[in-house]
Design goal:
CATH superfamily of the largest domain: Vaccinia Virus protein VP39
Number of strands: 14
Strand content: 15-25%
Bound molecules: S-adenosylmethionine
CATH topology of the largest domain: Rossmann fold
Shape: globular
Number of domains: 3
Largest sheet: 7 strands, mixed
Structural class: alpha/beta
Helix content: 40-55%
Amino acid sequence: MDKKKLKTKGETMIERAENQFWAYDINNINNQKDLVLLDNVQFIYELSLAELELKSFGVEFKVTNGLRKFKILNKSEEIKNLIKKRGSYFKSIDGEFTDYFYIIQKNQTRSVNQYLTHWIYPYKGKFHPQMIRALLNIIGLKQGDIVFEPFSGSGTTALEAQLLGINFYGIDISPLCVIQGRVKTESIFILDKILEIKDKVISKLVPSLFHSEVDYYKLIDKLTDDERVKNFYKLARLLAVSDNSRRKKDFVTSYIKNINLMIASIKDYIEIKERLGLKLGEVKFEVGDSRNVNLPDNSVDGIVTSPPYSIALDYVKNDEHSLKDLGFDVTKMRNDFIGVRGNGKNRVKLYNEDMKKSYSEMYRVLKPNKYAVIVIGNATYQGKEVKTVEFTVDYMESIGFKLVKNINKIIFGLYNVMKKENILIFKKEI
Ligand SMILES: C[S@@+](CC[C@H](N)C(=O)[O-])C[C@H]1O[C@@H](n2cnc3c(N)ncnc32)[C@H](O)[C@@H]1O
């Protein structure tokens, strides 16, 4: 027998998982003429989104050989180009890599889905960016269209829309979310201004600076007039605040490490934008209430969002340290956050009332015959499952939406409160 011991499958898997570049493997495409899935596509819901995405591009295809291989039946230059420029789940077509394959490699973290500026700030309950890119395609959004997100959270949809040249308008009740979204999408336009004051900020960086919030924010105010630069430095500080409060990391070490990583990510974004010739969408974020949206009737081409999951996560508590650091009155704020008001049964009742208002607003602002994607799950509260998904479908259908797709998706990390979520695609029928 060969003396060289063959590796077991387990050993190979572990090696792959430990090497953060496994998803970017550049082998294995030369002989594959047709369409190759990205290696990180693992779940049934992802395959079903990949198929829906192909259909939205007008591709006729056959799934062959173990679900991972596709044979395109109506190949043309136009179809090839659509998959190459806009696709989300594909690594290559006819031996040429897709834009997305290049984009995901611009990553300063160990997590395959935290590429470009997505990783900035550890916000709980982030969307999976690859899924969002696919959903934007699936609901037929094109360059120049506008997508609205009434619960924009950490800004995942914003960055993905921007990359695809789709205009984005997002609101969130949390000012911290608005800062995150802005920094992730605006910093590429002001990198020189960020770098201009970096040394001045760092040279004044003594531990005492971090113990007095006022000094830091005042210093930044003095050093720049540009709101976008201020937001960058605010968020850099909040990352350190969060690291310190959640993981007891030293402020200054964390601040310097993060600011350098943030700058590296912004450079990555600029570099890939130029290399791929991306025409970016316009992005606008505001602090706002989804129950009362500042948009005209029939004005947006699509909605992609995940509302608070009933009472699964307390968004105010999660980010209390950062909100307080920014000087907000957290107790007062809770009154406007959906899902955290009231106690016991009353909490669910208030949630349902608030969400009805938000869904009605979505219906009002969406253009007829366009789509709203709601990602939501049932949570367990006080030992009982709260049927948020059923409630959402019932209410949406009662106001004129039609459920056209319901895709189950397993989620990891929140096992104690939620095991799966649903991607619900509704059409505004008239
Ligand atoms: C599930 S999270 C969204 C996460 C987001 N999809 C992401 O990728 O980061 C729900 C968001 O709803 C926001 N929210 C709660 N009440 C709101 C309200 N009345 N109006 C607008 N946003 C609200 C919370 O601040 C939270 O960011």
